[in-house]
Design a protein that fits this description.
Distance between the termini: 24 Å
Radius of gyration: 16 Å
Order of helices and strands: HHHEHEEEEEEEHEEEE
Oligomer: single chain
Low-confidence stretches: none
Mean pLDDT: 91
Shape: globular
């Protein structure tokens, strides 16, 4: 199964990389509009969101809009191989290149996200998704481990993906964590 997942990841990421910059920007804008108008986003007090890298769906507009609405915004930081936590940022200036050159918070320990009973929405990255919310990430398991620990503390988990990253079904394992919804440029897929 690992080999099947690896080949599917490689194939879809190649297609994603081949998208034109114009397509990426147009689709990212459409995805952002769907994300920030969704009731889960509007009701959330805290937003846990990755900062896009390379050809991923652009998340900067979502982050900026969350700031405008006064939401607490947390971004992931890799602390060690295999361990990731989210830290609060108050502007894009709080980010610096970190793990694999990806923008991460320059965080103080007291800014780490801790479950506090607030409505929290997590945005998930990934390489490939299926319509049931299964995801194939980038192979390091950061989000699977984080979600295993925190799944009961999150109001909702939304994956951001271009439509070409969503398949009818994909291989998955029992420990793989699912998204509640997938937001693409074409639709919002309810996976519950």
């Amino acid at each position: 199964m690992q080999e099947e997942k690896r080949l599917l990841r490689k194939s879809i990421l190649k297609k994603r990389e081949e998208m034109s910059l114009e397509e990426q920007l147009t689709y990212s804008h459409d995805i952002m509009e769907k994300a920030v108008s969704h009731f889960e986003f509007l009701q959330a007090e805290e937003i846990l969101i990755y900062v896009n890298s390379q050809s991923e769906v652009n998340t900067k507009g979502i982050i900026e809009y969350a700031f405008l609405l006064g939401k607490a915004v947390y971004c992931p930081k890799v602390l060690s191989e295999g361990e990731m936590e989210f830290f609060r940022i108050s502007s894009m200036k709080d980010l610096a290149k970190g793990y694999k050159g990806i923008l991460e918070p320059e965080a103080a320990p007291n800014e780490q996200w801790k479950p506090a009973g607030k409505k929290t929405l997590l945005f998930l990255p990934g390489a490939v998704f299926d319509r049931q919310g299964h995801r194939i990430g980038y192979g390091k398991g950061f989000y699977d481990r984080f979600l295993e620990r925190m799944r009961d503390c999150l109001e909702a988990k939304a994956a951001l993906a271009y439509g070409m990253q969503v398949k009818e079904t994909i291989p998955f394992e029992a420990h793989d964590q699912r998204a509640d919804m997938i937001i693409t440029e074409k639709e919002i897929i309810d996976c519950l």
